[in-house]
Write a sequence for this structure.
């Protein structure tokens, strides 16, 4: 395996180890997003930290990806209870390792995107090239207390090998019954005030209430309709459960609701 491939494998092993460690140990609370969420007094349901980064342009076979993922599991002491799946299309190949822990779920992926020829962009001389990515996703059940520390750990791991990660955080909470418009606005105002955020856009319909905002507290942002956003809040109501859910994310909500 080429040098960059060995580095990628080391990153995956380290990343999976840290994520599983974070899942199985209750690390103390850190971060203004968690504090803002906690102030709402909603019952936490789950929190999620997602990250991805490019790690090289070598070609990996499915066998190599499977071997890398199985080596990951072995390094973590995991010999059963996990699932390894493979998916492919005309321009991509994807291998995924999924493992449930006591306090959450870890998902690691190796994704190979083909470039050139029928891919999105051409390599040198029009030849086929590859873009390799490491994606990580950690979901924490019931308690989001150490979400921000997990985010910082992920960023450090990616950057330690020269990768610039894109990281997103998401937390979900619930409360019994249907929140009134006044109640939803009170929670929104409280969160935005604590995070020093300004409202950029609001969407209200019969299925959800969604607010996009921007705060200088968070370095990363994206553009929506020509304006920066890096904070996203939404309320949904499930009539069959008679429960209102709050979704809060930086920079935006990736999860379906």
């Amino acid at each position: 395996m080429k040098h960059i491939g060995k580095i990628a494998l080391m990153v995956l092993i380290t990343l999976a180890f840290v994520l599983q460690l974070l899942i199985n140990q209750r690390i103390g609370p850190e971060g203004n997003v968690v504090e803002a969420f906690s102030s709402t007094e909603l019952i936490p349901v789950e929190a999620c930290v997602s990250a991805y980064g490019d790690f090289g342009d070598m070609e990996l076979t499915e066998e190599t990806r499977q071997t890398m993922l199985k080596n990951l599991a072995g390094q973590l002491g995991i010999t059963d209870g996990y699932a390894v799946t493979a998916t492919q299309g005309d321009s991509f190949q994807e291998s995924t390792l999924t493992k449930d822990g006591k306090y959450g779920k870890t998902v690691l992926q190796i994704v190979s995107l083909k470039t050139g020829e029928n891919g999105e962009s051409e390599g040198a001389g029009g030849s086929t090239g590859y873009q390799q990515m490491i994606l990580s996703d950690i979901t924490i059940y019931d308690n989001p207390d150490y979400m921000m520390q997990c985010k910082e750990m992920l960023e450090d791991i990616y950057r330690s090998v020269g990768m610039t990660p894109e990281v997103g955080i998401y937390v979900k909470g619930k409360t019994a019954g249907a929140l009134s418009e006044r109640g939803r606005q009170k929670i929104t105002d409280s969160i935005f005030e604590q995070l020093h955020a300004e409202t950029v856009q609001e969407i209200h319909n019969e299925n959800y209430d969604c607010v996009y905002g921007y705060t200088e507290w968070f370095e990363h942002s994206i553009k929506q309709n020509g304006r920066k956003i890096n904070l996203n809040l939404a309320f949904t109501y499930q009539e069959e459960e008679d429960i209102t859910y709050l979704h809060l994310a930086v920079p935006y909500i990736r999860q379906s609701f």
Remarks:
- Residues 21-31 have pLDDT under 50 and may be disordered.
- The radius of gyration is 20 Å.
- The longest strand covers residues 43-56.
- The chain has five helices and twelve strands.
